[in-house]
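lol ok so funny story. i was supposed to be doing the assay writeup but got distracted and ended up predicting the structure for this chain instead. priorities right. anyway since i did it might as well share w the group, maybe its usefull for someone
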Amino acid sequence: MDERELEQRLRTAVEHAAPDPLDRILASCGPQTGTVLPFEAPKKKRRWAPLAVAAALALVICGGAFGITSWRGANAVDSVVMLDVNPSLSMEVSAQERVLSVTPFNQDAEIILGDMDLTDTDLDVAVNALIGSMLQNGYLSDLQNAILVSVENQDAARSAQLQQHLTDTINSVFQGGSLEGAVLSQTVTESADLNALAQQYGISVGKAALIQEIIAQDSTLSFASLAPLSVNEIALITESRHLTSQTVTQTGTASTKAYITAEAAKSAALTHAGISESDVAQLEIEFDSEDGLMVYEVEFYAGGSEYDYDIDARTGEVVKSSREGGGSAGTSGGTASGSSGSYIGEAAATAAALQHAGVRQADTTYLRCWVEHDDGRAECYEVEFLAGSTEYQYEIDLYTGAVLKSERETYGTSGGGTASGSSGSYIGEAAARSAALSHAGVSESDASRIQVELDRDDGRTLYEVEFHVGRTEYSYEIDAASGAILKAEQEIDD
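and the output, tada:
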């Protein structure tokens, strides 16, 4: 439609909207007297009234269109800003840097938001409020001081500008709270893969992008192990492994105040191994995570063996240890064979098992000990023996003689079946629990994760009792009628 046609349509609409009232006015007048002088108004002047109204209507229409456009612009999403500490959330932001919506991705983020409604709030005000809530709720402190800021915008220059502005804003908040914080910032581009990972692990797309870049550089790390960690813990892992990033900018240093030093972790590993530092070659210490627990990985060679340790980064406790022997220092490979070298020997392994069982060798009717191998690698000593009607099975550490696993099962005298308990009512869960703890020599206050269940096995009713003491897991089968211990197992839980 051209301008002439639009003008004609507006003129027609105005004329129909405002009819000529002359006939109605004359009908209401009295009889005509005197001489009526004819008067003809100029035609040009008559055209201007509808045209003026048409112009006014056009102006209103244009103004309305402009208003709608302005409203849409003010409420359109220009950027997405994501904040991750352990709380993980995102904000949709307009071009005028007004917050349009806030989305929490985990329960910690919901705690941070609380009753705050940040919609239509200035972005700087919203960021100040969120950082303040994180400080107040302990998510940001001297122990965990790192935050990740991620910005998504189609305009790369605008994204970089907003990224820098938010970094400066957060650093200013940290300084006001006397906190030496670390701000990691990046620009991100949303993708289907990142969205899927973010939804799967309940984190922002920004944190997903950071983790994806880290594991691309170090294949020993996994997305599943890093996703539950705080940004501070992720930063410590990347720093200890000297990983670099082309997209992430960092100001400040992630805090290590919650953890022991790398030197203390090394000392704990060497003490456990019984090795002096002067005998060690190729020592490496790195931060890592085991089931959400921050640990130091300590690896070294000594005496032709390779040692691997996981040391609890908070307490210095040995969480996990392994040793491979047979290679020269600086090589990884072969395994020590037989009972030579640093193995304790079959006699010592047998003695350790008998002592743990409280059985004299003279009272056994069957006794056997050997080195158990798996894929050509020596794993442990296996010790089996029979004393009376009870069969014992043990796994003994090759180097220290520690009991890695123990099993005990009692048999009857009438053809190998399991001894049946006495008839009558059951002893109850409390008595079964007490019998298991007493046999293990453990007080109930020292045990955790105690579980007692009534079960049937081979026609017998029994109680299954399981509990942990430190890193040792105990499993018992207790005769439900007599309280006799039918089976006992003990295993180090790695």
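The chain has a mean pLDDT of 81. The chain has four domains: 79-251, 262-324, 338-410, 415-494.
back to the writeup now i swear
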